[in-house]
């Protein structure tokens, strides 16, 4: 039963989600497992009635207050066969996150108790929430904009304190306020333009060409500012760690230098030149207009020590370098396994190739030298490069860009959401530019009105005024249940 309520279910948003947004829903909002406290989140239009019946509360108790209140309650827990004390925090109106009546049940973080409470809520007609359904309701109710929804996922996906802080700032500073005003100004402008078209034969001017151009210019400035603000927020969003690893003296540092366009460093014919790991940044732009920062990491060669572990001196420089390399490999999003094509594989390299790793690319270096006899990779498809002549490097970079663009959806869902916002705002700016050009050239207010409508719709994607079920399905099925 516990697996049924797993916090990170992978089911996708169904089309019915948009037909049952008033349903009462429930999900665990804290990580699964034992803990001093667990939080169960509930939301829905008829929630007060259902909770009153579940907890046998006096009629009207939950709705008698206009502000959120905490109620100390008891609930009979099957299996434990006794009443368990819990806290019910209840939001009675649109002050809640979803702008529906909403509650949080705080209880002891014991999985059997949590599951029993969930079964009780389910039995009273409160269904399990789908992934991202709480945030979806907040977005559709206008509580948050699409960029803030992406920030919620940014908090979930954060891998460091800096990423967490940026996501929290983005949640606090949504774009919807300014964009709503821009959208309202454009709708008023559209009304003036269309009114002029309706009364064109009566020579009534609702907006002059000068006023039209000025108001379009202001809208362009506002949308451009929001676009820049969102792009600046994106810089941390797709910080992919790509590590280069392999045996000593296979050309890892040369490959590193070629990829990041750096001057040659830590390159020597002697094995073991790199005693630490080097980090440089490589910037790419994805197909979704997202600035992707690739964190390239060059590690020390993995030395094959024949001695037993007990004989190793872990205080030595070499041992610390090996430990650091192992940690960097483990923490990476993508691993470039560098091999020397001029020699046969050693036992460790054959062992690495024998382990399936979907996050690994094989790079065979030194193809300017005669290839070693019997060098086979079976099902693997390596990249063949020569760092001296730069052969194969550009192809490898393009492959990295393709992989990262594809992985934006799966590894950094919040980056995908932000890219949708940026794309929509770019569409709005393009439409406004066309409207401004048409107005300046006196090309006719019919064309201007059509372009303004297109800009309003594009802005509406970010503010939540315009959306498609397919787009929201792609966005919110990246969330965990309970968010």
Structure description:
With 483 residues, the protein is α/β, with parallel strands linked by helices. Helix content is 43%, strand content 17%. The protein is built from 14 helices and twelve strands. The strands form two sheets. A six-stranded mixed beta sheet has the order 3-4-5-2-1-6. Strands 8-9-7-10-11-12 form a six-stranded mixed beta sheet, with helices on both faces. Strand 8 and strand 9 form a beta hairpin. The longest helix has 28 residues. The N terminus is likely disordered.
The H/E string reads EEHEEEHEHHHHHEHEEHEHEEHHHH
Q: Please tell me the overall pLDDT.
A: 76
- Helicity range of the residues? 40-55%
Q: How many β strands by DSSP?
A: 12
Give the termini distance in whole angstroms.
21 Å
Strand arrangement across the biggest beta sheet:
3-4-5-2-1-6
Sum up the overall morphology in one term: flat
What proportion of the residues form beta strands (DSSP E)? 15-25%
> Could you name the ranges where pLDDT drops below 50 across 5 or more consecutive residues?
1-15, 264-275, 305-317, 409-413
Largest sheet: 6 strands, mixed
User: Count of helices?
Assistant: 14
Q: Write down the Rg.
A: 29 Å
**Could you say which structural class the secondary elements and strand pairing correspond to?**
alpha/beta
Keywords:
43% helix, 14 helices, alpha/beta, single chain, 6-stranded mixed β-sheet, 483 residues, 12 strands, 17% strand
């Amino acid at each position: 039963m516990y697996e049924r309520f797993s916090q990170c279910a992978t089911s996708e948003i169904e089309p019915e989600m948009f037909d049952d947004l008033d349903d009462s829903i429930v999900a665990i909002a804290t990580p699964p497992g034992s803990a001093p406290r667990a939080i169960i989140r509930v939301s829905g239009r008829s929630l007060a009635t259902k909770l009153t019946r579940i907890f046998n509360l006096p009629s009207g108790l939950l709705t008698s207050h206009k502000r959120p209140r905490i109620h100390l309650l008891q609930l009979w827990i099957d299996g434990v066969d006794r009443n368990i004390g819990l806290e019910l925090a209840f939001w009675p109106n649109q002050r809640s996150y979803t702008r529906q009546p909403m509650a949080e049940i705080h209880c002891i973080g014991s999985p059997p108790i949590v599951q029993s409470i969930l079964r009780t809520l389910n039995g009273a007609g409160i269904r399990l929430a789908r992934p991202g359904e709480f945030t979806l309701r907040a977005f559709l109710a206008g509580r948050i904009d699409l960029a803030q929804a992406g920030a919620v996922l940014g908090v979930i996906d954060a891998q460091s304190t800096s990423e967490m802080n940026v996501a929290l700032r983005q949640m606090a500073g949504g774009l919807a306020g300014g964009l709503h005003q821009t959208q309202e100004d454009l709708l008023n402008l559209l009304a003036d333009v269309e009114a002029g078209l309706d009364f064109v034969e009566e020579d009534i001017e609702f907006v002059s060409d000068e006023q039209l151009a000025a108001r379009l210019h202001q809208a362009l400035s506002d949308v451009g500012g929001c676009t820049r603000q969102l792009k600046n927020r994106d810089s941390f969003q797709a910080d992919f760690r790509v590590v280069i690893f392999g045996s000593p003296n296979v050309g890892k540092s040369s490959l590193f230098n070629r990829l990041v366009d750096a001057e040659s460093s830590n390159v020597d014919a002697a094995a073991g030149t790199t005693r630490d790991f080097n980090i440089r940044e490589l910037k790419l732009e994805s197909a979704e207009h997202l600035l992707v920062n690739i964190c390239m990491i060059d590690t020390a060669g993995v030395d094959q020590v024949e001695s037993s572990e007990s004989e190793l001196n872990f205080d030595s420089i070499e041992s610390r370098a090996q430990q650091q390399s192992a940690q960097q490999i483990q923490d990476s999003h993508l691993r470039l396994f560098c091999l020397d094509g001029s020699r046969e594989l050693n036992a460790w390299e054959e062992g690495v190739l024998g382990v399936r790793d979907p996050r690994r690319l094989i790079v065979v270096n030194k193809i300017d030298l005669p290839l070693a006899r019997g060098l086979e990779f079976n099902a693997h498809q390596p990249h063949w490069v020569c760092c001296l002549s730069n052969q194969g490097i550009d192809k490898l970079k393009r492959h990295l860009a393709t992989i990262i663009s594809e992985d934006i959806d799966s590894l950094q869902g919040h980056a995908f959401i932000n890219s949708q916002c940026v794309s929509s705002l770019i569409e709005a700016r393009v439409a406004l530019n066309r409207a401004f050009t048409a107005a300046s050239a006196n090309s006719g207010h019919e064309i201007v009105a059509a372009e303004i409508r297109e800009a309003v719709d594009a802005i509406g994607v970010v503010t939540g005024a315009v959306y498609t079920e397919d787009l929201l399905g792609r966005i919110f099925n990246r969330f965990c249940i309970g968010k």
